[in-house]
Amino acid sequence: MTHEERSRCIRWRLGWLPGGAPKPCPYQPNNNLSRRHAISCLNMHRRLCMPETIADPISFLLNMLPTRTFVPSSIALSWTCRWPVICSILHELDQLQHYTTIPCKTPHGQKLIEWLKQFN
């Protein structure tokens, strides 16, 4: 996990949006870019293939991140699909909050995916 990915995950879990106070959403200027609005505006449930009954799909998935040095291959496989999407969503949110394009140094989630490949 890169420093930027880790920072975005921590800020999401703590409820901090990048840039401090909520700003108008560039996609829907009548709404502030709050955590709740971001979940619906960025189609997080659909992009993460999660049911809408889960209020915060990113936090739900972050709670399920592997915590051991051995990961069953089925779990490793699911994370190789979901982790880049989580990183992409958080990167997009960071850009929306700062009204700027933030370049990616590596493909989203690449470091974790490389680590998970040893379990396939």
Overall mean pLDDT = 84
Tally of strands: 0
Strand % is under 5%
- Please give the share of residues in helix: 40-55%
In the residues, how many domains can be counted? 1
Which regions contain 5 or more consecutive residues with pLDDT less than 50?
Answer: none
Radius of gyration: 15 Å
Element pattern in H and E: HHHHHH
Biggest sheet, open or closed, and with what strands and sense? none
Which class best fits the helix and strand makeup? mainly alpha
The total of helices stands at 6
Global morphology: globular
Distance between the termini: 19 Å
Explain the overall architecture.
This protein has helices spanning 3-14, 35-41, 44-47, 57-62, 73-98, 110-116. With 120 residues, it is mainly alpha-helical. It has one domain. Helix 1 crosses helix 5 and helix 5 runs antiparallel to helix 6 (110-116). It is globular, with a radius of gyration of 15 Å.
Q: What is this structure, in a nutshell?
A:
This protein is mainly α and 120 residues long.
